[in-house]
Amino acid sequence: MDEAEFLDLMGATNLIPGPNSTEMAIHVGLSRARWKGMLVAGLSFILPAVAIVLVLAWAYVRYGTTPPATPSSTASRP
Amino acid sequence: MQMSAREAMHLIELRSSPQGHPTYRRVAHQMHALIREVAGHTAIAEAMRYVDFSDVDLERPRGRAPGRREAARRPRVRVTAETARSEPGSLRALALLFLRLGSTAFGGPAAHISMMHDEVVTRSAGWTRRSSST
User: Fold this and answer.
1) Cβ-based contacts of A41 with chain B (< 8 Å)
2) B117 touches A: beta carbon within 8 Å
3) pLDDT digits over B58-87, tens only?
4) The complex's ipTM?
5) DSSP class per residue in B1-57
6) What pLDDT score was predicted for residue B123?
7) Which chain A residues are Cβ-neighbours of B91 within 8 angstroms?
């Protein structure tokens, strides 16, 4: 992919609503391997973050009220 | 010349590192010795835990060793870059690339896009240029 194509995709992600980086991942997938690439790139980009958030959410529910853990949960309040 | 203990600590620890030039490594060692022995601030001298006392003249080649180790590790990256380039449309390469980005990219959309740019534009271009020249 060259600079111009990347910039075109960047323009497209700025035009449409939603998270730019995820849209960029999906665009790159589309340009490399059509609609299957689109799905694979989008899912691959999102799944690690989903897993990390799930672990944190589980830890918050499990340990959020334990006194030694409260500083870490207050520090990362949204 | 005047400096606080904190400044001396930073300067001496930084400038005594094995990657440094022998001339200023010697100065850093002398400063540390003067603080401990002449000024008598043994506690401050003890607090500088990262001062590197290894021999000034012999250290330079060993100080460069991490760079060489990095070079030895590079082929592994090159192989993945090569496979990704030889079949940029393969779903496997695509999934590996974005799983890696998805789990290592932190810092919001701007940072993600910059990392993606490195991966899909800069790196592949650099690779093509390098491989076509050899």
Assistant:
1) 94-95, 97-98
2) yes
3) 645 555 555 555 555 444 444 455 555 556
4) 0.78
5) ----HHHHHHHHHHHTSTTS-HHHHHHHHHHHHIIIIIS--HHHHHH-TT---S-HH
6) 66
7) 33, 36-37, 40
